[in-house]
């Protein structure tokens, strides 16, 4: 059977303009989640879409695309497979198009190289005619006379305004920088891990580097710097790993534990009171902020190597440590730290600092014109329903959706690639008003919450009602 391949001309084909000047759906931001929506929407009859991004081309966490790093989810969590395994935009079809199916088969990989995932996404983005890069969105407004959102974006031809009945925000998240270190940010000296790869060679030449943050990014930066040390451990930087968390803990990756990343858990989570949801997200950090067991094992192996023959590793690991103050000290930095459990203060001097302190959703500036029309919650966050619609003023007849800005309403799966295609398919079905892609009524063995009335607590859990699904 011949699998249809995107033609070479697809890479440069402009998005078709709608006859009435109004798009059915415009996506703002082309990261993996909106790219998933664009791929699933490709070819849907009668659906006119456009996706815009400020970057010159697709890129995914370029600062962390080190050799040897892998995705923390299986390759089936690509842009489309978990919603439509027959799509030509699947990772397996990407391999086929690059004559890599046999090498991939023999490699027996379930978790693919991060660099290849980035290349796969670029392959898709370059061939979808509805994706436009170098098109930064500068304003989103509600045009009551047109009954549509007005999306103003830049580009080589200057500012342009398009109309959309529905808009999907997929603008991603922004790096988090701890308050004591914000005034010290400086490229190559004090930087977020999002920029690590750009400055890794300079950092490897420093005498002492401190990595802050106990998640996967922090672990990978630490491991990379350890491997930059000479075999005898004398060359390369002394490396220090600091984190507020009480341990450098592995990510929860048991088969039953992973059922928190299913539509079933999302439905359960959404019905909980807001204070309970906020508490759960904090408590469940190990589901999405831990480190893969493999990476922790590699770090241990590197340190073990340094002790052969009585040597000592030029590294130190400090969990349970908070940075309370920081200042410039000559060519380096002086950190004031507090051990959380001992409530003891101490200081450390370092030459360079890498902040692997995560990312957080932020309200984009272009939303300012419609900010008063969004029904924000008490903490200034979106109110999001089961189809990922944002609650808006009743006067707005258009629809606004969000991707990866709803952890507070949908739980820990919001930033996870596992649910990306499912969420995109959910939005696609809602945006078209029909079932373009059928989605499972049940995906987990776990019954989250109390059994339904009349149930004994055993056997198969009932499928969600229509109201619960919303």
Describe this structure in words.
The chain has 470 residues and is α/β, with parallel strands linked by helices. It is 25% helix and 19% strand. It has helices at residues 32-41, 91-97, 101-107, 114-127, 196-204, 216-227, 263-270, 274-283, 285-288, 293-306, 407-410, 420-432, 466-469, and strands at residues 22-23, 25-28, 49-52, 131-132, 137-143, 148-153, 160-164, 166-169, 174-175, 190-192, 208-212, 238-242, 315-318, 321-329, 332-339, 344-350, 352-355, 359-360, 399-402. The strands form five sheets. A five-stranded parallel sheet has the order 4-3-2-8-19. Strands 10-17-11-12-13 form a five-stranded parallel sheet, with helices on one face. Strands 1-7-6-5 form a four-stranded mixed sheet, with no helix packed on it. Helix 1 packs across helix 12. The longest helix is centred in the first third of the chain and has 14 residues, at 114-127. The radius of gyration is 24 Å and the shape is globular. Residues 1-14, 457-462 and 465-469 have low confidence and may be disordered.
Number of helices: 13
Major sheet characteristics: 5 strands, parallel
Distance between the termini: 39 Å
Helix content: 10-25%
Helix and strand composition category? alpha/beta
What share of residues are in beta strands? Answer: 15-25%
Indicate the mean pLDDT.
Answer: 91
Uncertain runs: 1-14, 457-462, 465-469
How many strands appear in the DSSP assignment? 19
């Amino acid at each position: 059977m011949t699998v249809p391949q995107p033609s070479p001309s697809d890479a440069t084909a402009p998005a078709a303009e709608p006859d009435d000047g109004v798009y059915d759906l415009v996506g703002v931001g082309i990261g993996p989640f909106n790219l998933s929506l664009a791929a699933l929407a490709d070819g849907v009859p009668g659906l006119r879409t456009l996706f815009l991004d400020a970057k010159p081309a697709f890129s995914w966490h370029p600062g962390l695309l080190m050799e040897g790093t892998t995705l923390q989810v299986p390759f089936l969590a690509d842009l489309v497979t978990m919603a439509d395994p027959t799509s030509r935009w699947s990772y397996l079809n990407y391999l086929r198009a690059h004559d890599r199916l046999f090498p991939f088969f023999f490699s027996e990989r379930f978790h693919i190289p991060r660099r290849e995932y980035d290349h796969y996404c670029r392959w898709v983005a370059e061939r979808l005619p509805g994706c436009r890069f170098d098109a930064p969105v500068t304003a989103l407004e509600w045009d009551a006379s047109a009954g549509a959102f007005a999306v103003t974006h830049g580009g080589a031809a200057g500012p342009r305004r398009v109309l959309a009945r529905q808009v999907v925000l997929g603008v991603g998240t922004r790096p988090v920088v701890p308050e004591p270190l914000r005034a010290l940010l400086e490229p190559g000296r004090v930087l977020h891990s999002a920029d690590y790869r750009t400055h890794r060679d300079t950092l490897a030449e420093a005498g002492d580097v401190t990595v802050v943050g106990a998640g996967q990014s922090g672990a990978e930066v630490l491991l990379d710097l350890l491997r930059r040390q000479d075999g005898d451990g004398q060359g390369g930087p002394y490396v220090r790993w600091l984190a507020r968390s009480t341990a450098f803990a592995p990510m929860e990756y048991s088969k039953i534990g992973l059922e928190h990343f299913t539509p079933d858990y999302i439905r359960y989570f959404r019905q909980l009171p807001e204070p309970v949801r906020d508490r759960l997200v904090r408590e469940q950090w190990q589901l999405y902020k831990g480190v893969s067991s493999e990476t922790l094992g590699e770090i241990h192996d590197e340190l073990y190597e340094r002790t052969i023959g009585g040597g000592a590793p030029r590294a130190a690991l400090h969990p349970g440590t908070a940075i309370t103050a920081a200042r410039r000290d000559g060519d380096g930095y002086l950190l004031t730290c507090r051990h959380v459990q001992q409530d003891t203060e101490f200081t450390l001097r370092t030459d360079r600092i890498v902040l692997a302190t995560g990312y957080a959703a932020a309200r984009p500036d272009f939303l300012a014109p419609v900010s008063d029309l969004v029904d924000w919650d008490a903490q200034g966050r979106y109110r999001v329903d089961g189809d990922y619609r944002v609650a808006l003023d009743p006067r707005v007849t258009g629809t606004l959706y969000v991707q990866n800005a709803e952890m507070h309403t949908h739980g820990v799966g919001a930033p996870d690639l596992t649910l990306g295609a499912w969420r995109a398919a959910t939005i696609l079905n809602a945006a078209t008003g029909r079932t373009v892609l059928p989605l499972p009524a049940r995906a987990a063995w776990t019954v989250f919450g109390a059994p339904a009335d009349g149930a004994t607590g055993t056997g198969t859990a009932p499928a969600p009602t229509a109201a619960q699904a919303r």
